[in-house]
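Summary of Year 1 activities. Much of the first year was spent building the evaluation harness for sequence design. The harness presents a backbone, in tokenized form, and records the residue chosen at every position. We chose the following record to illustrate the format because it has been used consistently in internal testing since the harness was completed.
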């Protein structure tokens, strides 16, 4: 076959790999007005109007897609229940394949072919019009779905399903995806249902890239992540989240970059920003490389728009080691184990812990040269394996700055330590954990700033810094999730 003809046919067959080398993406960390009893859809429209300012700016900077955070429209309310959240839910369309539903133009049918009443969908309609106005794909969580179900055998007692929902509207305002969160976190089950099995949802963009999606806590579960990445081969993930940081060791950015690296995907993560470092951490990552990221290390709310050119990944997925929950002999532990040391300039050492089947060792060397304001800080090797720290089975091995826990629950504060002042010449974490779909190799430095993957050596259950790269290390952890 003529080589030019062959190339032309190849381009037609694989447009998502050859139509462009990159796409331009945006994510927004956003602090919304908070829900108060008696609020209705006007609260969501008020927050959406604030978001529109950032959507407009993203478009001015050439973004083709923007991801908005979980709970970004409605904020957070500790005492939500199924009834008081109902006024801000909308009965979202179920039939939209093939660009048949455009809320802005009020063109959408129900299952019987009847026109949908858009008076019941004010927020979806407005979001659709904004996507159309700026000609940008909008992935937005918070237009949450209510589906009435009185005649179904699995229908809840109040006669309706309610879901934490991510919708995607394309550049023309068409509804192209609707995803219900597969795994509620703690109190969410008081007001949201979850699907019987996690939904596998994706869409194809106008610029030739296929996007999959999931929400926040879903990242720590086998599904839908496995089907999206390994069965369907999707390399671009949309991730709205309200991530509660456990600082210093388990911050949002660390999990985001860890998932991107372990699964060789582009990861577009948008976090809520209303309570400072407790929930901050958004970013755009490509195969573990941070293209743009942000963590607010203060206690004050913040908004931050991040934009980056994202390379289209065409690599094959890594081989994944599949483990079930019997890989380790789990104990039902409630707290991690710590082994502390003083970070004295010019010293080095090794520490070892064995906890419920996890063997964990750290080797370290503290820099002789420290800042003029340096005061000796305490660090700790820490390890865990079991249930209780998260509501799933996890194991981890790590090194972390150790500040006394004000609540005296742990040997070190694991909730609100965000700063460090100690330079490490080297650190190395070794464990008997394994690389897998749900493993996360994480490291950060002063201010919860993630350490770029190019400065780390990451192996099977191991993390170390590359020769000659010195960090004000805050924490570094290898974590693995186990599920059947």
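For this record, the design step produced the sequence shown next.
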């Amino acid at each position: 076959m003529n080589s030019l003809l062959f190339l032309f046919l190849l381009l037609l067959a694989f447009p998502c790999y050859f139509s462009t080398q990159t796409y331009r993406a945006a994510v927004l960390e956003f602090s919304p007005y908070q829900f108060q009893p008696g609020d209705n859809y006007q609260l969501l429209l008020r927050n959406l109007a604030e978001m529109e300012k950032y959507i407009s700016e993203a478009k001015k900077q050439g973004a083709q897609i923007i991801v908005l955070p979980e709970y970004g429209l409605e904020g957070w309310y500790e005492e939500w229940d199924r009834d008081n959240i109902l006024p801000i839910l909308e009965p979202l369309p179920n039939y939209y394949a093939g660009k048949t539903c455009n809320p802005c133009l009020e063109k959408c049918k129900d299952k019987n072919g009847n026109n949908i009443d858009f008076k019941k969908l004010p927020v979806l309609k407005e979001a659709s019009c904004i996507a159309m106005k700026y000609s940008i794909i909008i992935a937005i969580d918070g237009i949450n779905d209510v589906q009435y179900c009185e005649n179904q055998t699995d229908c809840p007692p109040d006669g309706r399903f309610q879901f934490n929902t991510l919708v995607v509207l394309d550049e023309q305002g068409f509804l192209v995806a609707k995803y219900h969160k597969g795994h509620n976190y703690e109190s969410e089950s008081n007001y949201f249902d979850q699907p019987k099995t996690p939904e596998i949802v994706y869409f194809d963009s106008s610029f030739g890239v296929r996007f999959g999606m999931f929400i926040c806590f879903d990242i720590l579960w086998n599904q839908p992540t496995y089907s999206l990445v390994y069965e369907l081969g999707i390399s671009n993930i949309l991730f709205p989240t309200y991530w509660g940081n456990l600082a210093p060791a388990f911050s949002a950015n660390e999990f985001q970059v860890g998932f991107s690296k372990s699964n060789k995907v582009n990861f577009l993560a948008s976090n809520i920003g209303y309570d400072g470092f407790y929930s901050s951490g958004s970013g755009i990552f490509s195969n573990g490389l941070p293209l743009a990221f942000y963590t607010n290390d203060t206690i004050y709310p913040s908004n931050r728009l991040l934009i980056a050119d994202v390379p289209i990944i065409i690599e094959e997925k890594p081989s994944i080691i599949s483990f079930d929950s019997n890989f380790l002999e789990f104990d039902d532990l409630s707290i991690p184990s710590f082994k502390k040391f003083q970070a004295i300039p010019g010293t080095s050492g090794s520490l070892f812990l064995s906890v419920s089947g996890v063997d964990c060792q750290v080797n370290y060397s503290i820099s002789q040269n420290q800042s003029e304001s340096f005061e000796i800080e305490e660090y700790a090797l820490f390890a865990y394996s079991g249930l209780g720290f998260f509501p799933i089975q996890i194991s981890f091995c790590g090194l972390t700055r150790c500040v006394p826990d004000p609540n005296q629950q742990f040997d070190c504060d694991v909730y609100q330590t965000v700063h460090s002042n100690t330079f490490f010449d080297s650190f190395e974490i070794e464990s008997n954990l394994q690389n897998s779909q749900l493993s996360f190799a994480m490291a950060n430095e002063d201010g919860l700033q993630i350490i770029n993957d190019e400065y780390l050596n990451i192996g099977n259950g191991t993390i170390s810094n590359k020769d000659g790269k010195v960090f004000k290390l805050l924490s570094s952890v290898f974590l693995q999730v186990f599920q059947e």
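Residues 132 and 294 are 28 Å apart (CA to CA). Quantitative recovery figures across the full test set are reported in Table 2.
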